[in-house]
Amino acid sequence: MARHDEVGVRVAVVIVTYNSADALGTCLASLPAGLDGVEVTEIVVADNASRDSTCEIAKNFTELPVRVVEIGRNAGYAAGINAGIRALGSYDTVLVINPDVRVRPGAAAKLAEAFSRSNVGIAAPRLENPDGSLQPSLRRPPTVLRAWAEALIGGNRAGRWGTLGELITDPRRYDVPGPAAWATGGVLMLSAEAVRQTGQWDETFLLYGEETDFALRAGRLGLLTWYTPDAVFEHDGGESGTNPMLWALLTVNRTTVVRRHYGFLAWAGYFAAVVVGEGIRALAGRPTAKAALTALLNPSRRRKVLPQ
């Protein structure tokens, strides 16, 4: 499945799906133009036991050959990535995307150019909302100070004050290439070397936090996450901000990442800040915060598996 090769890189694509029939068709339709300029080795849809027509849409797509890997259960995003990568043959890079993503023409080739820099293991694109506005996706390392700032004044506001916030919200940062601690996992390109050295994505995260963990592990091996503004992908965005179950999972996983990568003392301060932040918002009546606070304070209420 070769296309004219302008950048000398072989790209495999892994799309992780779960009941994604409403989005997958437009994602697949964007691939022929989006992958222009690279040699495409394989396109794999790793499906987490969808109950809708997701698999049929993938199997019936005719513009490019698509292979479906059925996981058999809703095992989560990391499990989907791992299953998709295991199914691949030879490649130089893997483009991992959500089904609610559209690849702008030529974006994959521009993203692959990041690997011409030494020590780049993960390439992150510019994400835009369907209306063309910027979707902030870059992060600074999680710290106790940043957690308290986000808890007390909110993540978006903290992100606008120098380097105070974890989420980078200053639009000027998104105009220039450069390294980041990690980036939103909805679209990432991984080098074969990063896959080999860093190993599998941690499936215990289920959803959220797995991309942070992978990027931090890669960073410890000297492999950078590099932001490429010329590579533009359109992303609908998820429901984590409105779905109590998803927000609770995201919030708990934030603290898990800190415990694993920065140790107990950092985790204790970070955890306290997150509890205070969610507590403030729970008192204001926010259902997502109430669910997150319950999961933080009562480990037995934390989700260990996803809905099947």
UniProtKB/TrEMBL annotation:
Outline the extent of the Glycosyltransferase 2-like domain.
13-129
Q: Which residues form a coiled coil?
A: none
Could you state a single Gene Ontology molecular function term?
Answer: glycosyltransferase activity
- What domain of life is recorded for the organism? Bacteria
Query: What InterPro entries does the annotation carry?
Result: Glyco_trans_2-like, Nucleotide-diphossugar_trans
Q: Which Pfam families match?
A: Glycos_transf_2
What are the entry keywords? Glycosyltransferase, Transferase
Q: What pathway annotation does it carry? A: Cell wall biogenesis; cell wall polysaccharide biosynthesis
| Signal peptide range | none
Family statement drawn from the similarity comment of this UniProt entry: Belongs to the glycosyltransferase 2 family.
- Stated name of the protein: Glycosyl transferase family 2
Q: What is the lineage of its organism?
A: Bacteria, Bacillati, Actinomycetota, Actinomycetes, Pseudonocardiales
